[in-house]
Amino acid sequence: MAWRTSRSRWELHPPTLPKGIRIYAIGDIHGRVDLLDMMLQRIREHVARHPIARPIQVFLGDYIDRGPASREVLDRLSTQIEACETIFLRGNHEVYLLEFLKNPTILTEWRHYGGFETLLSYSLMPTIDPDPTEQKELAAALDRVLPPFHREWFAKLRDYFICGDFFFVHAGIRPGIPLEQQSTDDLLWIRDDFLKSDKDFTKMVVHGHTPVAEPEFCSNRINIDTGAYATGRLTCLVIDSDDLFLL
């Protein structure tokens, strides 16, 4: 059963979407293709039961790493044709993979954030502590096995998406900086300066990146990263006009 937010949270003027649009915002997947498949099915069923002119799926990034099936997640998202229009945002973990292809030594850092799990999903077998030679060999091997349609999909990822009174992004924004002037680094990596701010961001920011036990509904932002890889809970926020609920 969907959980609904209290209207009192939004005070006098709830953020809204244009008429005829409904958004399904999906949090960080991190290699959990099982949860992704279940959520896509729930979205299909919800759209079928409650038709609307323009349903839009917005994925907030961090599709890979940590969980066991990063390649399978990318297979699904880069090839599956959905009834909904779909927006894919870039997460900081996608940056790691692409940087690894150019700079293999980043594996020393990436491994601590789930990079080994991603390599394993592509049938690559890193040792416990790869030296620079092995790092280079692994990067070359990933470059060989990475499907062309994965590369094309990575190239199309967006840093943010704006619709109505909502701003969708992976990590957050830098307070005090206009939305159109935000740096890519902040959009993909920021934490405390954004999370601890009570400023009016001019749009309601919907984000992931920082795992929380339950979705956070604040006066200026909504966090829907519920740590799917560890908790088994992938969150989808449905926004329909000024109504918000979890699918």
Question: What features would you describe in this structure?
Answer:
There is one protein chain. The protein has helices at residues 33-49, 70-79, 92-102, 107-110, 115-121, 132-145, 148-155, 184-189, 192-195, 228-231, and strands spanning 3-4, 21-26, 54-59, 85-88, 160-163, 166-169, 204-207, 216-217, 221-223, 236-240, 243-246. The protein is of the alpha/beta class and 247 residues long. It has a single domain (17-246), classed as Purple Acid Phosphatase, chain A, domain 2, CATH 3.60.21.10. The strands form two sheets. Strands 1-11-10-2-3-4 form a six-stranded mixed β-sheet, with helices on one face. The radius of gyration is 18 Å and the shape is globular. The protein starts with a strand and ends with a strand. Mean pLDDT is 92; it is low at 1-9.
